[in-house]
Design goal:
By secondary structure, the chain is of the alpha/beta class. It has a domain of 203 residues: Alpha-Beta Barrel (TIM Barrel). 37% of the residues lie in helices and 12% in strands. It is built from twelve helices and ten strands. Strands 9-8-7-6-5-4-3-10 form an eight-stranded parallel beta sheet, covered by helices on one side. It has a two-stranded antiparallel ribbon with strand order 1-2. The protein is globular, with a radius of gyration of 19 Å. The two termini are 30 Å apart. It holds the Pfam family Aldo_ket_red. Keywords: NADP, Oxidoreductase. One of its GO terms (molecular function) is oxidoreductase activity. This is Protein tas.
Length: 346
């Protein structure tokens, strides 16, 4: 396993990060622990979770994932694990989180971190991320900014960073990051942190896959010049890039188990693009999942790719794809498909 520096921090994270958003819904505690054990045995030292998990978010399952990780973490040497979690953002109807209304203000963030630390059975988090922006932005399948949705005041980025600075000073958080962010937001976080001596974001966690390469439009220059690490999630596009929904539209997975949840993947070119990538993979003796994961793993601007699975067999295949880098010929064929189906799932 390769290890890479996270942003400008002193954290060296594995090139693969274990995502855990199925723990507590699609996976039991025992299954979650088995995944964590296997990931650790393969050299993965980076684990990502969130107070809101598992997903899709529901009042009856909220916080289960962190609790499952906590019963495992208490048996591990804490300094060998790089643990990341997230505080739920504002501007969404999730009033059952911390009693609502959810916002990235001081009261909410402090309540969130105390809850996460208790469930995770640890004194600190290595990375604490804002799960989605407090302000109005197009996210989770939306792709157009709409000024008409500026209907509420939002907690300023300076206020958000000042609260996070308190947590860093108190030793509850080592480094901070953002998720589902836009270029303007990333640059504002960086500008304000420098101007006021506040914590600098080490990372950004955004969706990135063969079906969603929107990050390449502007954001790659930012992460390169500003030394902010990309932690891509959904590299298999909710299972679409495994090819299973091509062969059987009702195949078991998040898309069929939770109707209406994956709106990003309901757009017209998702299936034909997925079929094209699956065909390319099989042409070169790879599984569709191996092609999709290896592509993301080895992009120059990716620090650590967040993968998830509902079975150990899936996890083994996903991790195994690391050792199958793609040839230049395959990469050229990927670009040809990309030009036909530019961003089918923004």
């Amino acid at each position: 396993m390769e290890y890479r520096k996270l942003g400008q921090s002193d954290l060296n994270v594995s090139a693969i990060c274990l995502g855990t958003m199925t723990f507590g819904d699609q996976n039991t505690e025992a299954e979650g622990h088995a995944q964590l054990d296997y990931a650790l045995s393969q050299g993965i030292n980076f684990i990502d979770t969130a107070e809101m998990y598992p997903v899709p978010p529901k009042a009856e399952t909220y916080t289960r994932t962190e609790s499952i990780i906590g019963t495992w973490l208490k048996r591990q040497p804490r300094d060998k694990i790089i643990l990341a979690s997230k505080v739920a953002g504002g501007n969404r109807k999730l009033d059952w989180i911390r009693g609502g209304p959810v916002a990235v203000d001081r009261e909410n963030v402090r309540a969130a971190i105390e809850g996460s630390l208790k469930r995770l059975q640890t004194d600190y988090l290595d990375l604490y991320q804002i799960h989605w922006p407090e302000r109005n932005v197009p996210i989770f399948g939306q792709y157009q900014f709409d000024p008409a949705k500026e209907t509420k005041a939002w907690v300023s980025i300076q206020d958000q960073l000042e609260t996070l600075a308190e947590l860093v000073k108190e030793g509850k958080v080592r480094y901070v990051g953002v998720s589902n962010e836009q270029p303007w937001g990333v640059m504002e976080f960086l500008r304000i942190s420098e101007q006021y001596g506040l914590p600098r974001i080490a990372s950004i966690q955004n969706s990135y896959s063969l079906l969603n390469r929107g990050f390449e439009f502007g954001m790659t220059e930012i992460v390169y010049r500003e030394q902010v690490s990309l932690l891509p999630y959904s590299p298999l596009a909710f299972g679409h890039l495994t090819g299973k929904y091509i062969e059987d539209p009702q195949a078991k997975g998040r898309v069929t188990l939770f109707p209406g949840y994956a709106q990003r993947y309901t757009k017209p070119n998702v299936i034909p693009a997925s079929a094209a990538y699956a065909g390319l993979a099989r042409k070169h003796g790879l599984s569709p999942a191996e092609l999709a994961l290896s592509f993301v793993y080895h992009r120059w601007f990716v620090t650590s790719t967040i993968i998830g699975a509902t079975s150990l067999d899936q996890l083994q295949e996903n991790i195994g794809a690391w050792s199958k880098p793609l040839s230049q010929d395959i990469l050229q064929e990927i670009e040809a498909i990309h030009l036909r189906y530019m961003i089918p799932a923004p």
